[in-house]
Amino acid sequence: MPPSSLRVVYAFAREMHPKTSDVFIEYGTAGFRTKANLLEHVVYRMGLLAVIRSRVKNGRTIGMMITASHNLEPDNGVKLVDPDGEMLEESWESIATTLANVSDNDLEKTVQEIIATEKADMALKASVFIGMDTRYTSPRLAAAAANGVIALKGTPKEFGIVTTPMLHFFVKCRNDNTYGTPTEEGYYEKIVGAFKNIRKRLPARGDYNPRLYVDGANGVGGKKLKAIKKNLTELELELFNLGGVGEKLNLGCGADHVKVTQSPPKGITHPPFQRVASVDGDGDRIVYYYLDEQQKMYLLDGDRIATLIASYIQELLQACNATDISLGIVQTAYANGASTKYIQETLKVPVEFVKTGVKHLHHAAKTYDIGVYFEANGHGTVLYSDKAKKTINRISQEGDPTERKAAQLFLDFIDLTNETVGDAISDLFIVEAILCARGWSAVQWMELYDDLPCRQLKVTVKDRSVIKTTDAERICSEPEELQLKINELVAKYTNGRSFARPSGTEDIVRVYAEAETRQQADLLAAEVAQAVFDLAGGAGTRPELPAAPEL
Ligand code: G16
């Protein structure tokens, strides 16, 4: 583009999407995330960056998702999606951060530096797909994103309200038409179509009950399931928290609430032992739970989903006689120690630990022929390499009758998987298909192993960046005295484990603890939270210590 037309771009930016705050904002665990009123200039600038990225990638489509996912309603965010439908390449996160924070006066210079450094051919076409969640601030931000794209003569395509994983899927399909059709209908056709195919092969049996209650977090996931339900006879969906008048997104409901508080969402009643799936605000996470007759809650989180899926994939690999396909599982520090033990000792599958953030898990999962990755919070999927797909495809045509049958079923499971990113809807159908295949109730699923009691707490500090971590966030390297204190506290408890890390999506420090009993896990978490408050510059109210358990 000639410099004169670029000048118009920057005049427009100053006029329409000015930088109104000096608060530093960083591309974090899942893009930029903060109060919605601080984001307009950021989103506009990410529109500019998406166009440059598209041109660096030879005009392939880039995605922009306007969402703050599990955060409460006043927050919002934006993240970029790379051409394969994956999270933005890590080396570009610092470029995005720089661009988001420069003054309006330095915007022109910075954009030109990025274009020169990244060797973007600005004469190429550029295409950007834009999606948004249901927040009332999302339409304004999506418009700012489109303005940014148009400013650098890219072509925006707005999908309106979609789940985050749908947007990832559309981007992948646009750049690789063998994966599917880049529309909402194309998504349903592939994912729901695969589920229907599986259910034709596997009618409900044993203790599997096709009735499923779903907590939609008052967000987009529930709305999309409502659309899916219209043509779904294989599953009896009872949908709750669909975002009616006065119902707030993620407030007291949704996957994050259920996982962190270990309590059921509001707005839903169900019989004992009824399976309930809880998705998050933008439909990229899912956890399950049920209550017994005494209302005791049993949580089936991301670790449980990962182990269920991996154990079933093992069965399918055996049935196909696909002996040369490697299978691995990727977890984070939040994985319950009992799940890791089960994976290593019972499944005998290699397990790897990485930092929080699906971008890290996704990357690690790619090193296996089949990589299952899940965060305990319910964010995850399965990646199938070309080798795995080709092998299973070949067996489906050339194997003996038993192998062929297993391989054909396996191919449907691959189709059922949104391989671009963790997807609550795809994961829901995968879990349901496996439970159905095994004839299992949620109770039987729960019986695979016993979790260690665990607790998560949030601590507010003045500046969370003072905490640095290492060893997949399991060790705190700064402040040094904090890790010494954590070691001292953990040593008091049987099977104790704890860590603290700064969140990349909220302005808080997260504390995780597990131990032999519920009371011990709660106390250890509270003690570590206090240590964080005392040694890392606590702000606001000091965390409260529960009554001491008998040790
Ligand atoms: C995002 C990321 C997840 C991460 C979560 C919490 O989820 O995609 O990988 O586990 O944030 O991250 P942190 O502990 O750094 O705040 P979501 O569902 O909010 O997009």
UniProtKB/TrEMBL annotation:
This is Phosphoacetylglucosamine mutase. One of its GO terms (molecular function) is phosphoacetylglucosamine mutase activity. Residues 487-530 form the Alpha-D-phosphohexomutase C-terminal domain. The keyword Lyase does not apply. Binds 1 Mg(2+) ion per subunit. Gene3D superfamilies: Alpha-D-Glucose-1,6-Bisphosphate, subunit A, domain 3 (3.40.120.10), Alpha-D-phosphohexomutase, C-terminal domain (3.30.310.50). One of its GO terms (biological process) is carbohydrate metabolic process. The keyword Ribonucleoprotein does not apply. It catalyses: N-acetyl-alpha-D-glucosamine 1-phosphate = N-acetyl-D-glucosamine 6-phosphate. Its EC number is 5.4.2.3. Residues 61-98, 107-172 form the Alpha-D-phosphohexomutase alpha/beta/alpha domain. Pathway: Nucleotide-sugar biosynthesis; UDP-N-acetyl-alpha-D-glucosamine biosynthesis; N-acetyl-alpha-D-glucosamine 1-phosphate from alpha-D-glucosamine 6-phosphate (route I): step 2/2. It is an enzyme of class 5 (isomerase). Residues 181-287, 301-440 form the Phosphoacetylglucosamine mutase AMG1 domain. Belongs to the phosphohexose mutase family. SUPFAM superfamilies: Phosphoglucomutase, C-terminal domain, Phosphoglucomutase, first 3 domains. Mg(2+) binds at residues 69, 280, 282, 284.
